Amino acid sequence: MSKTRITIIPGDGIGPDIVKSAIQILDHAGCDFTYDYALAGMSALDATGELIPQQTLDLIEANKVALKGPLTTPVGKGFTSINVSLRKHFELYANVRPVRTFAGTKARYCDIDILTIRENTEGMYSGEGQIINDERTHAEAKSVITRQGSERVIRFAYEMARREGRKKVTTLHKANILKTTSGLFLEVAREIAKEYNDIISEEMIIDAACMNLVMYPERFDVIVTTNLFGDIISDLCAGLVGGLGMAPGANIGEHAAIFEAVHGSAPDIAGKNIANPTSIILASIQMLQYLGMNDQANHILAALKTTILEGDRTTRDLGGNGSTDEFTQAIIERL
């Protein structure tokens, strides 16, 4: 039986260091993958003159699953977000961002377990209708919401909630003001909710949701929303559990999936062996769950939890004095 092949995109800045950590842990957990390495971001631009070389796209297409470190999109005209480009190219319509509290961190809350599912290809990030006049005094952008796009991500959210034994799905919207775009998303959500009588369905205006997430985060279970709202809310949720270093992300479509660390490339600490690899480790756990390798996923999660709780070799942002390598080794020893 042939090994599962995973496309590895080390990324920029601290990306190679933390991706190396995740791969070492996957190997020690007995995952037995074959890795195909590919370039994207500044490292790809320097080597090939392209932010996303065709070879990288071909490898993702062939393997169907990728693990990706943080990428840097150059600031300035002519450069489209690499992450947005990958999501569009492979129709990765569902962005899955789980957050949970880990005992031993500096998180403000305990017992947080929220799953945000964000539509990943439409809305304000569709890139359509972006214009600015010559005087740069007037700018426009168009938000595009479709019934098909709304239905597939909302159904995805309910199916994931059911599969994970979750109790409630909350649809976030702004249909009181954005009556067409957000209104259509909410209309579709109400229709689909009727098919899932085993799950509590709730709807909440986005600004009220932000307030409630800060005051009563325990009220939330699964959140589903449009692209821009989801981008903001998922980072807010990460803040509840200690920041982006504790939050992974998955981009899932019908034919491919990319799992990633959601934080930046942090070039100021690149190569210093002090970066916290938790985000990419959690992303690799999402990848294992996607592949149906739940035993390995659970083993890694348990080892990570224990390492953070005991705190003897965690990185500085987690309150310890350990290096990236020492933190990784501590997890491996507990597998």
From TrEMBL:
MF (Gene Ontology): isocitrate dehydrogenase (NAD+) activity
Keyword presence, Oxidoreductase: yes
Origin: domain of life: Bacteria
Keywords linked to the UniProt accession: Oxidoreductase
EC number of this enzyme: 1.1.1.41
Keyword Zinc assigned: no
UniProt-listed Pfam families: Iso_dh
Domain Isopropylmalate dehydrogenase-like: 5-331
Transmembrane segments: none
Family as reported in the entry's similarity comment: Belongs to the isocitrate and isopropylmalate dehydrogenases family.
NCBIfam families listed in its UniProt record: PRK08997.1
Protein name: Isocitrate dehydrogenase
